[in-house]
Design goal:
alpha/beta; binds adenosine-5'-triphosphate; 8 strands; single chain; binds magnesium ion
């Protein structure tokens, strides 16, 4: 538990998680915000990145003014990862630091297409934001959580290559079979192109209702990815209420039985991704 994590056991570098599925509306943003909230609730320091030009996570974290802010914005920082001061793109939130999306991100795919090493820009930006250089704030992050847009291409590539750990939300319905197959084919090609290993760390069956079809899909998920922990997130209006309040379900008064599910996801990710990174400093 957090209380037992001694200060000298800080992690060497943050574990990065990319919340992704090119299918729209499956719960990427909901899972990203609430996983970040769960990690914070465990005492972890989280940097959240909203890579989606729609800016839903930016809105759901109460930062709509950042979405309409004047340049320099996240897009400028992706073009010039070491050149934009962190205070221009990193916003305070009670649970986490947030790299906000911006309306400019609608041009990200075409802008990045003209750049060399376009898929590596977020990796460079995170390396810069994770270091203390030039920051007068505590930037000793334990986790980086990236929310992706609902399509494959230059922007999502940046999330996948930078994080190399996937959290995959999917609805418990038959259309998810094809979307997961397409995602894994795509990720496989990206691994070859960039000589990286991208690992699914969590599969999140989302918006589950009590139907036979949902039960069958949960079994299919277990068979399809036997090595990857499967989490069951039920349909709850409390997620929408927390979104409207600008936070995760962990920061609102209302009790929610899905806190346990996200807490368990956070605990397992902590164990899987950070145990090898703990190091004793002098
Ligand atoms: N478990 C859930 N229970 C109830 N509502 C949910 C749940 N998960 C997501 N929703 C709702 O479904 C809608 C879509 O969710 P969300 O925005 O998280 O999906 P997304 O995959 O990020 O969408 P996009 O592909 O557009 O980025 C939102 O209105 C959200 O509040
Ligand atoms: Mg989203």
């Amino acid at each position: 538990m957090w209380a037992e994590l001694k200060s000298h056991e800080r992690m060497a570098e943050p574990a990065r998680l990319c919340v992704t599925n090119q299918k729209g509306g499956v719960g990427k943003t909901t899972v990203a915000i609430n996983l970040a909230g769960a990690l914070n609730d465990r005492g972890r320091d989280v940097l959240f990145v909203d890579l989606d030009p729609q800016g839903n996570a930016t809105e759901g974290l109460g930062l709509l003014e950042a979405y309409d802010a004047e340049p320099p914005t996240l897009l400028d920082a992706l073009v010039d990862p070491e050149g934009v001061p962190r205070e221009e793109i990193v916003y305070d939130h009670e649970e986490m630091d947030v790299v906000a999306s911006n309306v400019d991100m609608n041009a990200a795919a075409s802008t990045l297409a003209a750049e060399d090493d376009a898929e590596l820009r977020l990796d460079r930006l995170l390396t810069s934001l994770e270091s203390d250089a030039g920051a007068d704030v505590d930037v000793d992050y334990d986790f980086v959580v990236v929310d992706c847009p609902p399509h494959l291409g230059a922007v999502t590539d940046n999330g996948l290559v930078a994080a190399q750990n996937l959290v995959i939300p999917a609805l418990a319905e038959p259309t998810s079979k094809r979307s997961l197959e397409l995602l894994f084919d795509y990720v496989g090609a990206l691994e070859m192109d960039h000589d990286v290993e991208i690992e699914p760390q969590a599969l999140v069956a989302n918006r589950i209702e009590n139907t036979n079809a949902a039960d069958e899909m949960l079994e299919w998920f277990e068979d399809a990815l036997p090595e990857t922990p499967l989490y069951r997130v039920r349909k709850r209006v409390a997620f929408q209420r927390a979104f409207s309040a600008g936070s995760s379900i962990f920061a609102v008064e209302e009790e929610n039985d899905m806190r346990e599910v996200f807490a368990s996801m956070a605990e397992t990710l902590d164990e899987r991704l950070t145990s090898t990174r703990l190091e004793v400093s002098a």
